[in-house]
Design a protein that fits this description.
Structural class: alpha+beta
Low-confidence stretches: 1-19
Number of strands: 6
Distance between the termini: 75 Å
Number of helices: 5
Helix content: 25-40%
Oligomer: single chain
Strand order of the largest sheet: 2-1-6-5-4-3
Length: 146
């Protein structure tokens, strides 16, 4: 009897260990925002899947056509975040105000404002699709200037 109980308990223990839930999309995006504000490129990239797709507004990244949205796949996404954490962009990112809301079982929406109430104010929204605790897709949408 004892042997059979031990054998039955083993799959439960293994299943429990492997059943650790991945972070929710809101949690992943919250970590992403904190890493962005710190300018920690390594922590930022740790949130992304190896085959991630990041869509940016035209002209955000050096060498990107000024009239075409950027499409960055996989490791190329690093260029987006290297730009957003550089000395010219990071002051706005570091001080941005943001709110995160779930938008589906694997989607989160980030509203953000940089330099609020100043002539340099920039605002927008990012949409994230998170799979297995990693960002699989992000669209960066910037509001038109007021």
């Amino acid at each position: 009897m004892r042997t059979s109980l031990k054998i039955m308990a083993l799959p439960l223990a293994i299943g429990g260990a492997s059943a650790v839930a991945a972070a929710t999309p809101t949690q992943v995006v919250a970590h992403h925002v904190a890493a962005m504000k710190k300018g920690d490129l390594r922590a930022i990239m740790s949130d992304y899947a190896a085959n991630t797709i990041v869509i940016t507004p035209p002209g955000l990244v050096a060498g990107q056509p000024a009239r075409e949205a950027g499409v960055f796949v996989g490791a190329r996404a690093r260029a987006v975040f290297a730009t957003l954490t550089d000395k010219d962009h990071h002051p706005g990112v570091r001080t941005m105000q943001s709110s995160i809301a779930p938008a589906g079982p694997d989607v989160a929406r980030l509203r953000w404002v940089q330099f609020k109430g100043t002539p340099q104010q920039v605002s927008g929204e990012d949409i994230f699709v998170v799979r297995a605790g990693k960002i699989a897709y992000q669209a960066i949408l910037v509001d038109p200037p007021h």
